[in-house]
Amino acid sequence: MRLNKISYSAFLFLEGESMKWCTIEKEFLDKLRNYESRIPNTDYGQEKFKPFFGVLFEVGDLCYVSQVSHKKSRHYNMTDNKDFIKLYNGNRLLAVVNLNYMFPVHKSKLINVEYKNISDFRTFENDIEKGKYISLLKKEIREIKNKNVSQKAQDLYKFKYDYPNHFVSLRCLDFKDLEKKCFEIL
């Protein structure tokens, strides 16, 4: 077996109810971001909160997570591929997922985000705004499950190391390097 080959036995694939919204302990995320600046934020101020979703898959004590991005005009003309997935509500584009930015997190650093406690993570002007935000999160997570994003994440991980010079692989974070870094910063 070549060194860059990945064995699927290293993965723990989780489906269904395991796909949830989460956040990550700030100190751990900041340290990881100091090492890899492309790791996204979750906290954008009191009225902005962009949770991660996962667990996409596990490698040992590490869980892979990703994040949805707001739709932009350029996304309408783009097609789904190995690292880019559009999320729809009916025919309406809701958001996109850039799996090239998925990253590992030690299990102990994950914090579940539950709808009933969403106010712990951001402020809302009123209950109507809060309800709309929760409704959006529910639509997005349903579409993430329907699009089988967990399997696509595993496929991308394997693809990156099977085809390291492919343009998709080159725009991905270095997953294995980040796995090592996660243990260094614990």
Automatic annotation (TrEMBL):
GO terms for molecular function: RNA binding; RNA endonuclease activity. InterPro entries: ToxN/AbiQ_toxin (IPR025911), Type_III_TA_endoRNase (IPR053735). It holds the Pfam family ToxN_toxin. It comes from the Bacteria. This is Type III toxin-antitoxin system ToxN/AbiQ family toxin.
